[in-house]
Amino acid sequence: MSNERDRFSISIDVLPEDIDLMGHVNNVVYLRWVQDAAVAHWATLAPADERQTLLWVVRRHEIDYKRPAFAGDRLKAETWIGAATRFAFDRHTEIIEASRGRILAVARTVWCPVDRKSGRPADVSPVVRNLFSTRAQAGPE
Question: Per the domain annotation, does 141 fall within a domain?
Fold first, then answer.
C-alpha cells in the first residue's frame, strides 16, 4: 500500500501569464497545477490498459493558500494518494517553493473514476485500487 511517503512530484516554472492583477499567481492556476500533478502521476504509474479505459473527474477541491508565488519562481507540486471508497478517491497535493522548501498551498481533491466510453462512474480494478488508494474510508459515495 502507498502512503504519504510515496510522493510523486512535477516541476513548475511560474510564467507571466500565471500572474493576476495583484502581482502574484492566481488561485485558479494553483488548481491547474494540482490537476497537472494528478494527471502526470496517473500517466506515469497506471498500466496502459487502465489508462485506455478509465478517466478521472473531480468531485471536490479543497485548497489552502499559505504564501504567494511570483513570476519566475521555480516550484514543485508533490502529490500522494489517500483513502478511497467505491467512487471517491482522495488525493493530496502540496505546491512547494523549490529553493526553500516552503509550502505555498495545500490541496485535497476527491476524484471519481469514470468509464471512458460511457462517461459513467466506474469500478476500478484491484491494480488501480492498490496503486491509487491507501485504504477504504467510511462515508457516502
Answer: no
Amino acid at 44: T
Q: What is the three-class DSSP state of 57?
A: strand
How many domains does the chain divide into?
1
Domain that holds residue 15: 8-132
Q: What is the pLDDT of residue 6?
A: 87
Q: What pLDDT, in 10s, does the model give residues 94-114?
A: 999 999 999 999 999 999 999
Q: Cβ distance 12 to 76 under 8 Å?
A: yes
CA distances 130 to 30, 58, 82, 121, 134, Å, are: 28, 20, 11, 18, 7
Which three cell numbers, joined as nine digits, stand for 130?
A: 492498490
Query: Is 45 contained in some domain?
Result: yes
